[in-house]
Automatic annotation (TrEMBL):
Residues 1-27 form the signal peptide. PROSITE patterns: CBM2. This is Xyloglucanase. Residues 763-783 are annotated as: Disordered. Keywords: Carbohydrate metabolism, Glycosidase, Hydrolase, Polysaccharide degradation, Signal.
Length: 890
């Protein structure tokens, strides 16, 4: 959302993606494999609604109400018209492929609306260890197949708001084009995205980089081929490739190319403007106009000058249709759309107008004349053609009270995605750096004195990067530290909080903590362009006041609150470790602990604090004044570590982290960090947290994001790490989950998971407890003592998606299971996850996979599938386990 978005991701990288990259345990210190059980969890987002940059919105051109949105680090979404919500589509992306949560382009097939494609990859430099890929789906994103590419893609790179770089031929939908960055040129598939090859005849791979001197490779990357647009009026009929297509290139002198022979040969469009990059190229085939939005930079933050042009495809005539003189622009143009129901209506955005607001322009005469969303009456007073209602996401006001001409809430910033619904002239959506806004009475704009209503259209789309999490024993159940939007106090997980943390409002909160025995006392540290980098609350995070920075502080770092709230230890960026009594009006330098160390507090003894830096563990018993290095050895050598002390257990510390080239796993200390024991069977671990103990258990529930038993996932232990249960599944992985994790001290089994772009995920168990997780044992044949929950989660013409939960209601554990049912309407399973299946006619059998064979009494296991249907989608008439009827839950 703000200019700091890249800093959020870099922080995550520094914290773990580089120092603790996902890999197996060190060869020098092998860990025995652990036996892992499985539990069926229900997963949801703690609602924030939005919170990040939405650079692309794509409507299908032949099916009403079918639309998709892409984010720069948080995956892709499909619009649900019935509920006016977004459904996430890439939650299956796992740890090793975390970069595939960055989406650089989307394409929805106009010939077969069930098909959708996503070009994925987050960075083109070495921050992302994997190459990009093209994902293809035949069921609207319910399931995907992947083709890896021989180069990287940059969903979070400069220029990511240009596009779309991926396009499906509207006549021969087996043909797709993809514009590549980094000098890799234009690519084509002729088999519906299965295989790709470079279009060697395309003459220009681009040459523009935001900053050619950037040694990190981030801003110095060639932004490459930026969009592909077909002229559907030049098709030869169904199954015959469209003859004319246009391609945008990141080259200020040669920005637009055309082919008139289905991509065999290419030419630079003559007479085109120079000195600018073409962010978008949108064709109005009925009137024969290609509209182009130009900026002097690639965005999404920058852009100081811009133009709008119209190209007549029949005559080759170029017309400058800009709504403002070049000298009067202080922004570039990027958002661009035409009204398919009203040819000649075109809209564009001044995407880089940060102050006082973004601007949206509208023309109903093909760009001859324009009106704008707001204008000055007498400076600084504004007249708006719109009204805004953000009551569904009230934090979008930022708690601000700006002076005119600035207003709150703003229309937005980084407004590169702008689309009029091709079936409804009254509906328009546009993406910002913080949300998706929309209107359903857009044509009111054209009436004399009329106003159109703008409101968030973002529910279900969660795009925050999470740096830290806390769940106090009283007060709000969840406190979060987030990139870009600071963080929230959730008093209800199912409602959007009224405001992010303010007074001060950090651009990113890097760390937070509460006093364990006095949880109304909360501290947070974060980044701010000017102002304090630390803040305190005495009412459980409801209200805040800023502390005073020691000299040299440049960033938030990590912070810890003493158990009774009487003192704090802070390890900020730019200065050494500091400690204070009271609320940070005066700080003193700690001794014995290196600058940049991670700090935490003991949750019982208010004078005890802990630190970690470069493989050494440190302890302070005098409130953070002095630290002494522990004698513990064998800990991870780098700084990709997170550790926490157990609530209620003095000196009980758990440490997770490591790297592929050294120790990597989970360690436990019961003597205040004097010694640590590595847990066997944990191949790798990156976070650790605690929740309410299971019924009858003597130790709090442990949670970790880890690799255990050769499987990456989110794990729970109710017996101090002796046995583990995987609580997520292959459909719920969320890419990188290495920043933070915590259980809930008030709800057994509940876990809060930090993601790097999908917000705060929380899960609730179907397990009723029982003290310990089931380990391997006898292999009893499952009986009919079971119950099934069958839920259709989504359906569309010809297809559907369903979730199944199977509960063991008997008294013996299962070590292997199968579930049988028959479809009454001729449905057919096309793909199943978290179970294997066979189908003969209408009869289906689903069987466990290796990791979810064990199901304890009272526990459940879940799986899902997509299917085809030709008529109604009635639920199965009955279920059976081992030949015995298994009733459905009511």
């Amino acid at each position: 959302m703000r200019r700091t978005r890249i800093l959020t991701v870099l922080l995550a990288l520094a914290a773990g993606l580089l120092a603790g990259s996902p890999a197996a345990a060190s060869a020098a210190e092998p860990a025995p494999r652990a036996d892992v059980a499985a539990d069926s969890y229900t997963w949801k987002n703690a609602r924030i609604d939005g919170g990040g940059f939405v650079p692309g919105i794509v409507f299908n051109r032949t099916e009403k109400d079918l639309a998709y949105a892409r984010t720069d680090i948080g995956g892709a979404y499909r619009w649900q018209e019935e509920s006016h919500t977004w459904t996430p589509l890439l939650d299956h992306v796992g740890w090793d492929d975390w970069g595939h949560t960055g989406v650089v382009a989307l394409a929805s097939d106009a010939v077969d609306p069930d098909r959708v494609y996503a070009a994925v990859g987050t960075y083109t430099n070495d921050w992302d260890p994997t190459n990009g890929a093209v994902l293809r789906s035949a069921d609207r994103g319910a399931s995907w197949e992947k083709t890896d590419l021989p180069f990287k893609l940059g969903g979070n790179m400069p220029g990511r708001g240009m596009g779309e770089r991926l396009a499906v031929d509207p006549h021969d939908n087996d043909v797709l084009y993809l514009g590549a960055p980094s000098g890799h040129g234009l690519w084509r598939s002729t088999d519906a995205g299965v295989t790709w090859s470079e279009v060697t005849a395309f003459p220009n791979p681009g040459n523009y980089a935001q900053d050619p001197n950037d040694t990190s490779g981030y801003a110095s990357d060639n932004q490459g081929i930026t969009w592909v647009t077909f002229d559907e009026s030049t098709g030869g009929g169904a199954g015959t490739a469209t003859r004319t297509l246009y391609v945008g290139v990141a080259d200020k002198e040669n920005a637009v190319y055309r082919s008139t022979d289905a991509g065999a040969t290419w030419e630079r469009l003559t007479g085109q403007p120079t000195g600018y990059l073409a962010h978008k190229g949108v064709l109005d085939a009925e009137n024969g106009y290609l509209y182009l939005a130009y900026s002097d930079t690639g965005g999404p933050y920058d852009g100081g000058k811009g133009r709008l042009y119209r190209y007549a495809t029949a005559t080759g005539t170029w017309t400058d249709i800009s709504p403002a003189a070049e000298a009067d622009t202080y922004y570039g143009f990027s958002g661009l759309t035409v009204d398919r129901q009203r040819p000649g209506t075109v809209m564009a955005t001044a995407y880089s107008s940060w102050w006082p607001d973004t601007q949206i322009f509208r023309s109903t005469d093909s760009g001859a004349t324009w009106s704008q969303a707001w204008s000055y009456t007498s400076y600084p007073d504004r007249e708006n053609r719109y009204t805004m209602d953000v009551s569904s996401s009230p934090w979008l006001t930022w708690g601000a009270n700006p002076a005119p001409p600035e207003q709150t809430p703003k229309l937005g910033w980084m407004t590169e995605a702008l689309e009029i619904d091709p079936f409804d002239s009254d509906r328009m959506m546009y993406g910002t750096g913080a949300t998706v806004y929309g209107t359903e009475n857009l044509t009111n704009w054209d009436a004399e004195g009329g106003t159109f209503a703008v409101e968030p259209m973002v529910r279900g789309l969660e795009e925050t990067a999470v740096n830290d999490l806390a769940s106090p024993p009283s007060g709000a159940p969840l406190l979060s530290a987030l990139g870009d939007v600071g963080g929230f106090r959730h008093t209800s997980l199912t409602e959007v909080p009224s405001m992010m943390y303010t007074s001060p409002n950090f651009t990113s909160t890097t760390s937070l903590d509460f006093a364990e025995t006095k949880p109304d006392v909360v501290v947070r540290a974060g980044n701010l362009d000017s102002g304090p980098h630390i803040a305190f609350s005495t009412d459980n995070g409801a209200n805040w006041f800023g502390g005073t920075d020691p000299s040299g502080v440049s960033g938030g770092g990590t912070v810890a609150a003493g158990a009774d709230g009487s003192r704090f230890v802070w390890s900020p960026e730019g200065a050494g470790v500091q400690y204070t009594t009271g609320f940070g009006t005066s700080w003193q330098a700690s001794t014995g602990l290196p600058a940049g160390a991670i700090v935490e507090s003991d949750r019982v003894n208010p004078a005890t604090f802990y630190g970690f830096k470069s493989g050494r563990f440190y302890v302070s018993t005098d409130g953070g004044a002095t630290f002494t290095a522990s004698a513990a050895t064998g800990l991870p050598a780098g700084d990709g570590v997170r550790f926490k002390a157990l609530p209620g257990g003095e000196g009980d510390v758990w440490l997770a982290g490591g790297a592929a080239d050294g120790p990597y796993g989970l360690w436990h200390s019961t003597d205040g960090g004097g010694t640590f024991t590595r847990l066997p069977g944990v191949d790798a671990a990156d976070t650790v947290g605690f929740g309410k103990a299971a019924p009858g258990a003597s130790y709090q529930t442990l949670f970790t994001s880890a690799e255990i038993g050769g499987v990456r996932g989110i794990f729970r232990s109710t017996d101090a790490g002796a046995t583990w249960t995987r609580v997520n599944d292959d459909a719920h992985q969320w890419g990188w989950t290495g920043a933070a994790i915590t259980g809930d001290p008030r709800v057994y089994g509940r876990v809060y998971v930090a993601t790097n772009g999908r917000g705060v995920i929380y899960g609730d168990t179907s397990d009723t407890g029982g003290g310990t997780d089931p380990g391997p044992g006898p292999d009893p044949t499952p009986t009919g003592a079971c119950e099934v929950t069958y839920t259709v989660t989504n359906q569309w013409p010809g297809g559907f998606q369903a979730d199944v939960r199977l509960t063991n209601t008997g008294t013996s554990a299962w070590n292997g299971w199968s579930l049988d049912w028959s479809f009454p309407g001729g449905q057919e399973v096309t793909r199943m996850w978290n179970a294997e299946h066979t189908q003969a006619g209408t009869s289906v059998t689903a069987r466990n996979v290796g990791w979810n064979a064990g199901v304890a009494p009272g526990a459940s296991v879940g799986f899902g599938f997509t299917g085809s249907r030709s008529g109604t989608n009635a639920e199965p008439e009955g279920f059976a386990v081992a030949g015995r009827a298994c009733p459905t839950a009511t």
